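re: ur msg from earlier - yeah i can do the dinuclear copper ion complex, just paste it... oh wait u already did. ok heres what im feeding in:
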Amino acid sequence: MFKNIHLPRYERIWLTIGAISLVVFLVILGVLAVGLGLQPPGQMKTVPPEQVRTNAPFNKPNLVQVGPNEYKATMVAQMFSYLPDQLEVPAGSTIHFEITSPDVVHGLYVPNTNVNIMVVPGHVAEFTYTFKHPGDYLMLCHEYCGSGHQMMMGKLKVV
Ligand code: CUA
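and the outut:
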């Protein structure tokens, strides 16, 4: 490499390392994007914010059992509470969260878990998590949403 250009030895070495790194990164990117089919989320569900309170399913936010150890939480994040704001499931349960907002951007964060959802009006955010360990979990809003932001929370009991 670089045989016809007169470059100091170290500059040649580092240029070569730089070029190799670039190729390696592009190959990794290619493998992830094409080979494994990793993509940004597409076909996101949407819902007009003004219809959240009146139309199914978000007009009746709830937690329903959909299978053995499997639950679906249909939730609304609003100024400044969650609907519902108390969830209870047996340990080992998988919860499919489905949540949206009728007003401003909120968050749903459950400390000590991977549940960390951004709730944007107009979009339905979905996330699945299995709660293996019993305990009292907090559901916290982690997007500043107004004067009551710090009071916006719910409880999730795993028994
Ligand atoms: Cu809702 Cu902060």
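cool cool. The chain has two domains: 1-39, 49-158. ping me if u need the other ligands too
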